[in-house]
From TrEMBL:
Organism: Candidatus Collierbacteria bacterium CG22_combo_CG10-13_8_21_14_all_43_12
UniProt KW Transmembrane helix keyword: yes
Lineage: Bacteria, Candidatus Collieribacteriota
Superkingdom, taxonomy of origin: Bacteria
Record keywords: Membrane, Transmembrane, Transmembrane helix
Transmembrane segments: 7-24, 30-51, 63-85, 91-115, 127-148
Stated name of the protein: Uncharacterized protein
Length: 244
């Protein structure tokens, strides 16, 4: 079963259990005790999440938080509860910790419960609170989606930075281990030839143009070797700037 479907099922059960507990006359007096126990359980999950997989404990801790908020609201007046604002915050938490669609599911179910409970006694305050829940739902969904997109973008940036660092490291290794030694070897050989031809002078039956060409190659090799040094230093400096 997809994880999103599991979240929907567990979230629905959490809401229904909180509503049933608060509506039951024999269980309602123990709302405070249940809320305290769930609060301790919530902080217990948060404590152990530091030593284990954070994502694995997100679902139970979010469900516990959902149940606590609903118990507080249901037991302090429901639609006219002074803690009604907790539901708005709860939708944001559900959208961020589960999926954005779960906030819509929770909103629909909670609005349905409140509407069915207060159908015959709706007044202006209750209607305003109901509409506030309905209006808060798309805001929570949009906010969570934008937040997740930002996190995804940051993840892509980190991947690009890692790839850039790897490329810089490979470039530095290639310059220091292959390019510069090869250039130095060719430059030394060319310099030896030029010095040899200069020492022999006219004893060698070589056209002057060939000797001049060798000198030109020697000059180009010196320039190329200097450029390799400059490139190596530039890459190192840019890498240090990125790290800072």
């Amino acid at each position: 079963m997809p994880l999103s479907s599991l979240h929907t099922i567990y979230l629905t059960l959490s809401i229904l259990i909180a509503w049933f507990w608060s509506s039951n006359s024999s269980l309602n007096p123990y709302n405070l005790q249940l809320t305290a126990a769930l609060t301790l359980l919530y902080f217990g999950f948060k404590f152990f999440s530091r030593f284990s997989n954070q994502k694995a404990l997100n679902m139970p801790s979010t469900l516990i938080l959902n149940t606590i908020c609903l118990l507080l609201v249901f037991s302090t007046g429901g639609l006219v509860s002074p803690l009604f604002f907790l539901l708005d915050l709860l939708f944001f938490a559900i959208a961020l910790l589960f999926e954005p669609v779960q906030a819509a599911v929770a909103s629909f179910l909670i609005v349905f419960i409140f509407s069915s409970q207060n159908y015959s006694s709706l007044n202006t305050d209750k209607i305003i609170n109901l509409f506030s829940l309905i209006l808060m739902t798309p805001i929570a969904v949009i906010f969570s989606r934008n937040f997740l997109e930002v996190l995804e973008s940051k993840g892509k940036i980190k991947v690009l930075e890692t790839a850039l660092h790897e490329t810089e490291a490979e470039s530095l290794l290639w310059i220091s281990r292959q390019a510069k030694p090869s250039l130095a070897s060719v430059l030394n050989s060319t310099t030896d030839l030029v010095m040899y031809f200069n020492s022999k002078g006219r004893e060698l039956l070589l056209p002057p143009a060939i000797v001049e060409k060798l000198k030109s190659i020697q000059t180009d090799m010196i320039t190329l070797y200097s450029s390799a040094n400059s490139l190596e230093k530039t890459i190192e400096n840019e890498s240090d700037k990125i790290k800072l």
